[in-house]
Specification:
seven-stranded parallel sheet, 12 helices, about 290 residues, 11 strands, two-stranded antiparallel ribbon, alpha/beta
């Protein structure tokens, strides 16, 4: 279900005691993920207990052992890279206190992901391989992250209890593409504040769910379909960009003119306000014109 809707590297909230301490269960989880088609992409963890902020030599060596073993097992199942999750939404001194542990993760062959807010670039930008930025992506500086060889995802724009497919299509599709982000990872595919089928029994929040579970599958939501449409929009414009590059490299002169016009059109596209159905139709027209 996830793969069919453009989700290729879901952030797995598998607890550290299972990943590090129950190899049988961990391997079973990896096998299921492989069977669903996620192998070949990075394995991304999402639980705040994966790293912590140890500083004592013995604790750091234990962390490194866990990282090495986890990376080795994940590679057996076809996951080439493993991202370990820091302390969720940490700021200030708590965020900076993780630096020693994050360096240990790197030393052991792992990578670091965490979700958070503005200021991560200055505090931990040299060590944070994948920053899942909260809120409006335009407040971030993608070029500086990419210059370090790191990636940016976006979440919380919005989270998932919103019944508006256009919001998810726009905000996690072409809008992120135009902002030069590398992906979307909002919260959450399926998380209940109480009983999953009752959105209103939590003490503070509605359920953060875009697919409701059944005994043999899920019940889809319009929000999830909007998310899928956003992923498809990015696939369409990527196909157009590839066509532009091919024509500009060795295409006939007439098509090179059309390719340059298409590139200018993409550059001027306002993903925040554009009619997305109209954009897709125009992308298709230009792809066909460049064939």
């Amino acid at each position: 279900y996830m793969r069919e809707r453009g989700i290729v590297a879901p952030c797995m909230i598998w607890p550290a005691p299972m990943v590090y301490g129950d190899e049988t269960a961990f391997r079973r989880h990896l096998q299921l993920a492989k069977e669903e088609g996620f192998a070949g992409h990075p394995l991304v963890f999402g639980s705040s207990d994966m790293i912590g902020a140890p500083t004592e030599p013995a604790e750091l060596e234990k962390l490194k052992d866990n990282i090495r073993r986890t990376v080795a097992i994940a590679r057996e199942y076809g996951f080439p890279e493993v991202y370990f999750y820091g302390i969720d939404e940490a700021t200030g001194d708590v965020l900076k206190s993780e630096r020693v542990a994050w360096q240990a993760v790197h030393d052991a062959g792992g990578k670091v992901i965490v979700s958070g807010f503005h200021g991560q670039l200055e505090a931990v930008g040299d060590l944070l391989d994948l920053f899942n930025r909260a809120g409006d992506p335009l407040a971030e500086r993608p070029a500086e992250w990419h210059a370090r060889g790191h990636k940016l995802w976006n979440y919380g724009n919005p989270q998932t209890p919103v019944e508006d497919p256009l919001v998810y299509r726009r905000n996690f599709g072409l809008f992120l593409w135009k902002a030069d982000f590398d992906g979307a990872n909002t919260y959450c595919f399926m998380d209940s504040e109480g009983l999953t089928w009752n959105d209103f029994d939590g003490p503070a929040y509605r359920d953060h769910t875009v697919a409701y579970p059944t005994v043999d599958g899920v019940v889809a939501t319009l929000a999830m379909e909007g998310f899928r449409e956003g992923a498809d929009d990015v696939r369409y414009v990527t196909t157009l960009r590839q066509a532009i590059a091919r024509v500009l490299k060795d295409g006939p002169a007439a098509r090179q003119v059309a390719a340059r016009e298409a590139a200018e059109w993409l550059e001027g596209l306002d993903a925040r306000s554009a009619d997305l159905d109209g954009v897709r139709a125009e992308v298709v027209r230009r792809i066909l014109a460049l064939r």
